[in-house]
Amino acid sequence: ALPAPMHIEEERTIGPLLGQDSINKGIKATIIGSILVFVFMAIYYLLAGIIADIALLLNLLLILGGLGMLPVLFPGASATLTLPGIAGIVLSLGMAVDANVLINERIREELATGKALRGAIANGYSRAFSAIFDSNLTTLIAALLLFQFGTGPIRGFAVTLTIGLIASMFTAIVVTRTIFEVLLSFGLLKNSLPMLRLIKETKLDFIGKRKLFYAISLIVIIAGLFFYFKKGKEAYGIDFAGGQLQEYGFKTPPDIEKVRQVLKEVNLADASIQQFKDNPKLVLIRTAEDKSTILTDKLKSMFPEQDIQILRVERVGPIAGKHLKAKAIYALIWSMVGILVYVAFRFKHFNFAIAGVIALFHDVLVTLGFLAITGRQIDLLSVTAFLTIAGYSINDTIVIYDRVRENSRLFRKLSLKELINLSVNQTLGRTILTSGVTLLVVIAILFYGGEVLSSFAFALLVGFISGVYSTVYIASPLVLAWSRSE
């Protein structure tokens, strides 16, 4: 009743064809990725891998059950599974894989010292617990801050990640241990627990080559930022830059020049047109103005034989764009602050915390640069990928920090440089295995998830690889550098 005009600042419409296509491709990619993970774990760790697979399957069921219980636990709340929510599940399952790999590798180490199987299993869980607890709790703190300061899609990511982290702690530590105890009690598991081993113990001097890798990182980041700033507003999707996006489906690949002619006739000559390589029948048009009705009518009259389908229309006004961008930045910054404070508290020194957070920024900047270089735009789904990368990277870093803390008690005569090198070498196999297994899911999404998930999966691929690199060559050497400066 107020004499004030009302304007729609944000509106998104997904047509049934694109929606169903995204669901089908998403399910296909998830199934393929999951099968690859389950098969690898079973082949590599044999019986221990099958037990881990049972825990992972239960973990997924607990996540879905937790989402279903939200309205019961929090009246008025509801859960709708979106792409950021799926990203949260991917990260939590990745951390569940990591926990199981960590436990199995610890059991392997204990068996190598000659301990009996029951004692090796008990010690393996005991020694892996602190790393699993710290990494999960650190990511959980970040997820809670993301929920507090983030907007809709980011909060969805935080919800599924929180449920997944709690579930993964339970399945990795309680469920798998219970299965081992049952097998031992019934005599089904006696004197050995065979596992394959592809990555043997290394004695590489990672710290000694730190200056070379500092330089490589700077070159990659500077090159990426150059492309990012050069693109200006074009670097952002409509989530942050505002505007309108329309996706059309044609019967046969249309003549792009004729499409461009239509845009000129409706005064949208500056609009951008994208035709997908793997499916040239799809055309994506991004405009600054809302002329979707006029544009659609004109396209249908220009291509009467094509039976054009409107697959997607997204419109974000400038005010909503600025709001989404600000909330995304705040969420990212506050999650980093949470990680910084907790790591400093647990490891009794800010050197560890600051080095870990710098490694996170390194991974985000590297991923941002690769998105800009490859012509992919930054949107809310990209921010979700950055958050997923940060969570996975700090998890990896904390595992090494935990080993440094443990080795400092066992080898008191070693220097900090020797302790860090020893710890990185001891955890290198686990780092490569965990990241490699999680990348199986990401690669499946990249190749089979369709265009909607393509940029997200590409960002995860770059970020996870960068995360392994930064843990070894950025975070660990920086701890040594700052300790010396004191």
Characteristics of this structure?
486 residues, alpha+beta, five-stranded antiparallel β-sheet, 14 helices, 5 strands
Task: Give a concise summary.
This protein has 486 residues and is an alpha+beta fold. Helices cover 73% and strands 6% of the residues.
Q: How do the strands and helices of this protein lay out in sequence?
A:
Elements: E1 10-14, H1 16-45, H2 47-73, H3 83-112, H4 117-149, H5 152-185, H6 210-231, H7 238-241, E2 243-249, H8 256-265, E3 272-275, E4 282-287, H9 292-302, E5 309-316, H10 318-347, H11 350-373, H12 380-410, H13 416-448, H14 451-485
Helix pairs in contact: 1-2, 1-13, 2-3, 2-5, 3-4, 3-5, 3-12, 3-13, 4-5, 4-10, 4-12, 6-11, 8-9, 10-11, 10-12, 11-12, 11-14, 12-13, 12-14, 13-14
Total strands: the figure is 5
Structural class: alpha+beta
Order of helices and strands, N to C? EHHHHHHHEHEEHEHHHHH
Overall pLDDT confidence: 83
**Integer-rounded radius of gyration:** 25 Å
Which strands sit side by side, in order, in the main sheet? 1-5-2-4-3
**Which overall shape is indicated by the principal axes computed on the Cα atoms?**
globular
Biggest β-sheet strands, sense, barrel? 5 strands, antiparallel
Number of helices: 14
Distance between the termini: 66 Å
Oligomer: single chain
> What is the helix fraction of residues, given as a range?
over 70%
Percent of residues in beta strands? 5-15%
Q: Outline the low-pLDDT stretches.
A: none
